[in-house]
Amino acid sequence: MKEQLYILFCESPFQTNKVDEDFEDQFISAKENGFETLLFNFEDLTSADRFSVVTKRIKQNEELATVIYRGWMLTPKQYSILYNELLSKNYKLINTVEEYQNCHYLPDNLRFIENRTPKTVFEKFDSENSIDKLIEKSKIFGQKSVILKDYVKSEKHDWETACFVLDASDTDKLKQTINKLIELRDKYLNEGIVVREFVELNNLTIHSKSGMPLTEEYRLFFCNKKILGIYDYWEEGEYKHSKPDTTEFEEIAKRVESNFFSMDIARQKNGELIIIELGDGQVAGLPDKTDRNEFYKQLQICCC
Ligand SMILES: Nc1ncnc2c1ncn2[C@@H]1O[C@H](COP(=O)(O)OP(=O)(O)O)[C@@H](O)[C@H]1O
Ligand SMILES: [Mg+2]
C-alpha cells in the first residue's frame, strides 16, 4: 500500500485548529492532492518558554510517517526542536537538521553549486572584528560590484543602501552597506554576512515599490532528486523567453544533500544561466503566479 504522506502547516495565530491564512490555498491544494495535513503553533516554537509544547495538538502516530513542512522560515535550532518533537510523535520531517541547514545557509551549500554561482566570500558575525575580516576577504573582488546578504536573506528592497555596492574596493562604502544590512536584519540576522560578485542579469523591469531591478529569474523545486517544476520568480515584468532547459541544473541537484529544496536560477545579460541561491523546500515561498494545485500534484508524484 502507498505510504500516507503528511504536510505540516502553521496554525492561524488568531484561531486554533485553523491554518494560517497565508497558507490556506496551499492547505486546500495539499488535501486535494492526497496529502494528510497537520498543524502546529509557530508562536510556540519561536517563543523561549513554549517551544516544548509545539506539537501539543498532534497525536502520536501508530507508524513512522514522512512529513513535509510548508511554512515560515526557521533557524536550524528551531527546525531541530520541531524535528525532534515530531519524531517523538512518530513523524519524520523529510529533511534532517543537517539537510535543512545545507540549503538554508548559503555557506553550507556553496560546495554543491560553486561552479554555477557568483564568486562568494563570507564571515560569521560575532564582533566588530568580523566586519574587518570580511572586508579583508572582499579584496578578491577588486573594483567589481558586489551584493550583500546574511547567510539566508538579503535586504534587497533597500538595494542602494543595504544590498548593492558599486565598487568593492571602496571600503568605506562597503563597510557602511554592511552596517546598514546588519542594522536592518537586526535580531533576525542569520549567522553572518556574505559578499558576492554582482553579475549583470537580464532585466525585466524595475520593482514598482522598491526600485530594485527585477531580472529574469526562475524558482525550481526538487524532491527526492526529481524536478517538481520551474516557475517564474517575479509577479511583475514580462517573461519573454520560453522556460529554460533545466537539464544541467537537474544534474547539479543530484549532488545536493537534501530531499526537498528550491533552486533559484537567473539569466545573465550574456544569455548564460546561473544559480542565485538554494533554499530548503519546506520554507521556500511559492512564487505568486504558481498554480498551487499543480505544485502539490507534482510533489505527490515526486514523493512516491
Ligand atoms: N550575484 C548577483 N548578481 C546580480 N544580482 C544578484 C546577485 N545575487 C542576487 N541578485 C539579485 O538580488 C536578489 C536578491 O538576492 P538573493 O540572494 O536571492 O536574496 P534573498 O534571499 O533576499 O532573496 C535576487 O533575486 C537577484 O535579483
Ligand atoms: Mg532570493
Can you walk me through this structure?
The chain has 304 residues and is α+β, with helices and mostly antiparallel strands. The protein has three domains: 6-93, no CATH class; 119-197, Dna Ligase, domain 1 (2-Layer Sandwich), CATH 3.30.1490; 201-303, ATP-grasp fold, B domain (D-amino Acid Aminotransferase, Chain A, domain 1, 2-Layer Sandwich), CATH 3.30.470. Helices cover 30% and strands 24% of the residues. The chain is built from ten helices and 14 strands. Helix 1 crosses helix 10 and helix 3 packs antiparallel against helix 4 (97-104). Adenosine-5'-diphosphate is lined by residues 118, 147, 149, 153-154, 156, 196-199, 201, 215, 217, 264, 276-277.
Keywords:
binds magnesium ion; 304 residues; binds adenosine-5'-diphosphate; Dna Ligase, domain 1; four-stranded parallel sheet; 14 strands; 30% helix; 3 domains
Biggest sheet: strand arrangement: 2-1-3-4
Q: Ions, cofactors, ligands: which are bound?
A: adenosine-5'-diphosphate, magnesium ion
Q: Based on the structure, what is the oligomeric state of the protein chains? A: single chain
Mean pLDDT: 94
Poorly predicted regions: none
| Major sheet summary line | 4 strands, parallel
The count of helical stretches stands at 10
User: What is the number of E strands?
Assistant: 14
CATH topology of the largest domain: D-amino Acid Aminotransferase, Chain A, domain 1
What is the C-alpha radius of gyration, as a whole number of Å? 20 Å
Euclidean distance between termini CA atoms: 11 Å
Q: Report strand %.
A: 15-25%
